[in-house]
User: Fold this.
Amino acid sequence: MEALLPSAVLIVALLILLATLAFYLFGDYVHKWNQMKRIPGLSPTYPILGNALLFKPSGEDFFLQLIEFTTTCRDEPLMKLWLGPLPFIVLFHAEAVEVVLSSSRHLDKSYAYKFLHPWLGTGLLTSTGNKWRARRKLITPTFHFTILMDFLEVMNEQTNILLRKLEKKVGKGPFNCFSDITLCALDIICETAMDKKVYAQSDSDSEYIRAIYKMSDLIHRRQKMPWFWPDFLYNTFGDGKEHDETLKILHSFTEKVVAEKFRKMENSEEFNHSNSDSDSASRRKKKRKAFLDLILNATDERGKKLSQQDIREEVDTFMFEGHDTTAAAINWALYLLGSHPDALKKVHDELDDVFGNSDRPATMEDIKNLQFLQCAIKESLRLFPSVPIFGRTLLEDCYIGGFKVPKGVNAMIIPYALHRDPRYFPDPEEFRPERFLQKNSNKMNPYAFIPFSAGIRNCIGQKFALIEEKVILSSILRRFHVETKQSRDELHLVGELILRPQNGIWIELHPRTE
Assistant:
């Protein structure tokens, strides 16, 4: 009997701890509920479940619902919704977005990003506080202009492979170009990020490529289902087993690449030490460096290098962020230019001015001179932002549009709706690249157009992305005339992690005749 006493005490202590935690969480929930009563929101809203039962399960229906809510509340400065017990404010006006993105306090990503942690760890996308600041400072130099110039070679090489594939489809009728563009972007990011060729354009059925798409789909589905947020329920009743199997494929691939790179570096150092200076001339030819090479050599302010796990986090992050977003932007630009012959003619004229009849690879000077193409890309990103929704967690109470929003609430920012504000973009559904000519965009609120986020935590790779988009689009449009074969109504937008058309982008290619 006495032997059971310590166990009984332990159980009672554990129950008291759980009860205290539940009381605290419930008290915090009630506190936020009362504080946010005045903020316009959706109905019905149920205790604990919130608005979760309102949302439709399919990606297309959920996104359309969300956009419909923002349209209905267009005159309100913000909107609230509850995903289960978690409160969100939805922001889609420049002035409201600025309060969050311009702050040096609200840098933490929202709760929904925790489901990326098993894959990406706490790399640059998902890390918070001091770790994020240290990583950002460490990685920023790897996106220096001179380094991006080295990456240009890879972009041109992989684009040439894409052009050879597209050449076979000229005059053969409409086809879905979404996959072709995406595989090209995947080849580019694998080689520039990891110095690893995966030959996605010739082997699109590889295990690693399928795992990337499967993991993105699993994460987005879980984000919408609060009942699967606890790991136990997800692993027991949800897709936990499939998630873990997919994760193993992704991490095994990256770990293998990082380990190979470590070995090469060690062998290279031994080789350099064992040879005399007279032999060094033969090795002076500069070798193109990948992002992985650069972060392997990066050190923090204490002179400390990243661990292998740290490096894997950052490589996985750039693999996740660095191809799908760019590929979507290129596809949307092709769709819109193929739907607007006048704008396409202006792009063709600019390309002829810059390149003439040459089929040479694009240079950085060419990229700089393609100003109207850049306007077309930006206007495409306005209408179809690659990331249609992203989130932050408020780390202190703040006032937005006259409403007090308590600390701990998640802010859901919706660029798709924000970019359609008629105050900044008259006739917002119209495709007008001229909006982004310098003379027209100077007076625009900087938080009215945020395809790469904005403020302190903006996208570190946006210059890389724009260069890649210009290289691929200029190469395609120098060679082909593009004609779109879908209306806007036929796109059926799916706003998951990336904004996609449900059935792809269908175009027809013709040879340039002028």
Observations:
- The chain has 19 helices and eleven strands.
- The longest strand covers residues 86-91.
